[in-house]
Sequence to fold (296 residues):
Amino acid sequence: MFMSVKELVEKAEKQHQKISELMIQQEIDENQETRDEVWQKMEKNLAVMQSAAKRGVMGDGVFSKTGLTGGEAVLLQKYRQKKKTLSGDAMVAAVQDAVATNEVNAAMGVICATPTAGSSGTLPGILFTITKRLHLNHEQMIRFLFTAGAFGMVVANNAGIAGATGGCQAEVGSASAMGAAAAVEAAGGTPQQAAEALSIAISNLLGLVCDPVAGLVELPCVKRNAIGAGNGLIAADMALAGLTNKIPADEVIQAMDKVGKGLPQALRETGLGGVAGTPTGLKLKVKIFGKTVADD
Fold:
């Protein structure tokens, strides 16, 4: 099992292998399964992602039972059709898929946690956009997920991926970094460039708090996945252009761990601080659960 980005990159370079291939081999060894079995499991994950992103923009969209979220992926789709986006169609397409996926999650639909349910829209937002931009085939899409998984495993082993322990930087931040690194490999970048993309992406979202309104994974979670997707694509482009983060990926991951542990409890998924603690946030909580803050 890979415990550091440095180890992952060095092995890929030494063996002249893609990081996705190293991850496939690890899964075969760890689970004592055949290559076909490992591959088919990842194919199922991709199918779930595709289904969720598609469902989120069908008809009027999907809506959560609380009414806090829903229907906004459809608005993004309609906005794109006007062809007047400020950040370009590819970027807004990524945002659309990210929002659509997380709206499905909020509506109790089936998603693929990457690495968590709360951050499940970030990776699809990145993957489906580069699939169109780079004309990725099915195999390349699956390899993207294996690459993302390899980097995600390192993050999880060294910093954690739960908002309750590390803030939203640990969820959307990790997902954004995983997607950035995988996008670099999919675009033909080197293992070191993938590591740089991960480092840049995490650094950009370092300190991001987890402050779900009413304690539900809806606000501001859904739109944070959109930011995660955009950040991942930008980080990947910078790394592919030759930019470096100067601070090694493993040190950035360690920094994220320290920052997460240093966040006050109110900013770690408790629904007490940040936007959850605003007057409007508290009113929405009362509206949903029918009790005042004093009752907590």
Q: What stands out?
A: The mean pLDDT is 97. The chain has one domain: 5-290. The two ends are 42 Å apart (CA to CA).
